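Q: Got a minute? One more chain.
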Amino acid sequence: MRAPLIAVAIVACAALCADPRGAAAEWQPAGLRPAATTLAEVLATNAKAAGTPQAAFADRRERWTYTNGSRVLPVDVAVKGDDFRATVAVGSALYDAGRLHGVRWRGDANGIVHGLFADQQGDALDRLPQSLFPFDPKRCELAGETVGPNPAWVIVDRPSGEPPSWFFVDEASGLIVREETREGQRVFGTTFDRFAPVAGVERPRHWHISDGDPHNDLDVAVETIAPGPVPAAAVSLPLEQHVFAPAAGPLGIVELPAEFRQGRVSVAVVVGGRREHFILDSGTASITLDAGDARRFDPLLEHAIVPRMSVGSLEMGDVSVLAIPTGVGILGYDFFFGHVVRIDYLHERVEVLSHEAAASVFADPNTVVLPANVDYGLPLVHVTLGRLASGAFAVDTGSPDLFAFGPFARRNAAEIAAHWSAAGRNHVVNYLEGSVYISPRRVSEFDLGPFRFKNADVGVEIPNTMADALAIPFDGIIGTNVLRSFDLYFDYDHGRIGLRR
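A: Always. Here it is, folded:
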């Protein structure tokens, strides 16, 4: 999660709900009403209208074009059974997204990929319609129907580890004519037209994508669809990574110019010749530049390529950055690869170490080594809170507090209500992607590896009916109020974090 840069608003709220499902309704498209049919009938109507694909259609290559204003971008798509990969070319920069072994992923032009499980920001370049790729009807639910001149049944697909997708099945034609997905506080809709048969299937040959910001509008035209054998390599993850490195010589150990203020760490970064300060944030899934600052690099669909960035003596050319309104630059996920990043809160130092230089640290018995799952854009580790445990709390140097989010709170609602005491007024925490409603609680102890914190304050997420409410899928955040007790070594390449008290 990105740091809560917007001021926290204090509001009144009911006590923590003991119902494990929560009291707030899930976000859904506007204008739905109960449907006068069943899911089975809707799926049968859609299957009849869409047709039965020929066996060869399971493997295919497609060629699309994205049109955004005056910019036209080529898109290569490969589909192999349930797996797919789409590559968008923005000049010489390649952006990839797809699904592999049931897991959705995306990668920027730095060649570093992550799963979508924990990515609340979304990506204007990755707006792949999920109804065009294989989905499991058994996983779908009937959400309702719309009324008006073109009524549609709406079914929702909730794949594990992905945002839900809402498919609008036109009641007249039986075809899926629209799809909606929510990314943080943004909703983008895809409207399909120009249907034509191919290999036994009715497929749209054009669609329009909009998230309410005209700068991100996309018109997508399908140029070709070619069924036939597709090698596994065509749908695999990108192999090359583009990382920060010394301009000359081996890395060794490099100290970065850094400032520590109230737990937040910022480092000096030269961006296209201009010196700035970036937040060092293990909870952000990208290297991020404020949209205003990014204008000098000709951003497109919320991305830009910076010709050169340097952090201390480390440099990188043609850096892919996310360009969104943040008000500040952020060194996120991509920055942590290719080396070990050390944050020493006690001595207020930041260092970047080669893996060879860091080997002695991780071998030292005084270093506690925590396995960390970094596959989803931030490091998730195992924790215990009182009598409860979780393997999905994010180590987040960009957030101050310890939070337990909806999935954890719903699973453990009875235990939390019975044994975690109230510790303050309920309030809203605003992240860049949206809001989270928090009930402050106190747990008898919080354990991170062998380190124990007695009477720990935890912000427990409670149901949130606000329009920008986030649906965070992982269990919680370990913020700097805990992390500043440690000397931390982030080793993303080996999926681990070293801690020294």
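A: Residues 1-24 have pLDDT under 50 and may be disordered.
Q: Perfect, thanks.
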